[in-house]
């Protein structure tokens, strides 16, 4: 359901952005062609969808650069090695307590 919702939103945004693009009109055969100005120059300012799109692109670029700088700073702290050690210690402790619990359940179920 979530994938369907995301696809619907993306198609809607694509349709709105395609609808927002304006193509220069082609000159009729009888009239001489005039040079066509750029669409942004003709409008004088950006449309709402173009503003939103550029804002989202800016936020996305900023978040990517921030995340990559954070990852670069984390690499120097050797956190991967510390996390691997913590995971192995936790696994050993969990397996020990799981064994104890298994023995307790066995002796409860199969009393002599």
From TrEMBL:
Compartmental location: Secreted
Gene Ontology cellular-component annotations: chylomicron; high-density lipoprotein particle; low-density lipoprotein particle; very-low-density lipoprotein particle
Major localization class: secreted
InterPro entries in UniProt: Apo-CII, ApoC-II_dom_sf
Superkingdom of source: Eukaryota
The keyword Lipid metabolism is annotated on this UniProt entry: yes
Family: Belongs to the apolipoprotein C2 family.
Function text: Component of chylomicrons, very low-density lipoproteins (VLDL), low-density lipoproteins (LDL), and high-density lipoproteins (HDL) in plasma. Plays an important role in lipoprotein metabolism as an activator of lipoprotein lipase.
Name the UniProt record assigns to this protein: Apolipoprotein C-II
